Amino acid sequence: MDRFIQLGADIAELWQSYWLSYLTGIGNTLLLALVGTVIGCIIGLVCGILNTIPYEPTDALAKRVVLRVVRAVVRVYVEVFRGTPMILQAVFIQYGLPYFTNGAFQFTNVWVVSILVVSINTGAYMAESVRGGIISVDPGQTEGAKAIGMNHWQTMTSVVLPQALRNIVPQIGNNFIINIKDTSVMFIISFTDFFAVHRAAVGATYLYFPSATIEMIGYLTMTLIASVLLRQLEKRMDGPTNFELVVADPLVPGEGMHIYKQNPNEPNSDYRSRKRQARADEALKSKRPAERYTRKGGPRK
Fold first, then answer.
1. Sequential pLDDT tens for the chain (301 residues)
2. Dihedral angle sign, alpha carbons of residues 77, 109, 31, 208
């Protein structure tokens, strides 16, 4: 029990001394994760679309060569940045580029490097997610779009992508939550995020575990709030659930069809016109003389 009391006292002491630094680190972490995820989704969307452009053996040679080269480049990009740690990518871009170019090419703004690293890393993962979302759409949707004269661009933007995006929204949220946590590796290039503040506080007070507890609570709070907001976004994209599905021609009542019954007291011109037409038909039938038929089926003259 004494340990928990001491832990609470140390946490209170740290928060009282470094609360502004902790909040600044949280803000930097959220901003970097959000911007990196948005840019990464754009990169992944472009790469995923390029990876799924179809071509036939009968197409022009130039088109086939270009598409094969583009797919090879995208594949290399995905495998390299998905198969290496983000911390090493940050080290290579911040310190490796000046090393290989003798200082001719280097970044002076740590924000630019951090956003670039998070974006290209997220884009590598999102490229495969987008490709999977596109190929998960029923091929009949594409065939139907082509049957009515749509080209590939119209089919993708109007038919396939709206359905694919709904399928990959959970993956986008997952990448955003991962980026919230993985931005902690940016301390290697002196980016002041939430984890960097923790390291600075520990270096000044030597209270490692109390500061780590603050970090754990902070990261957990950020990810939980992000999860709740993303679930609300998914529900909005799903649309309303209080509707009835019509499985037959709405003009022909049939089994499994929900018919809306008009209230006679409700002022509706269509309903009144139908009633007047029905009364006119009944009156016409009552005035028509009955015809007599012979045994052969023909009317008597």
1. 788 888 888 889 888 888 899 999 999 999 999 999 999 999 999 998 888 887 778 888 888 899 899 999 999 999 999 899 999 999 999 988 888 888 788 888 899 999 999 999 999 999 988 888 888 888 888 888 888 888 877 888 888 888 888 888 888 889 999 999 988 899 888 898 899 999 888 888 888 899 999 999 999 999 999 999 988 888 887 766 655 555 555 555 555 444 445 455 555 556 566 777 777 777 776 665 544 444 555 555 4
2. positive
**Structural domains in the chain (count):** 1
Q: What is the CATH number of the domain that holds 161?
A: 1.10.3720.10
Q: Is residue 280 part of a domain?
A: no
Q: What is the pTM of this model?
A: 0.73
List the domain range (segments joined by +) for residue 46: 2-238
Q: Is residue 300 part of a domain?
A: no
In a domain, 265, yes or no: no
Let me know if residue 210 belongs to a domain: yes
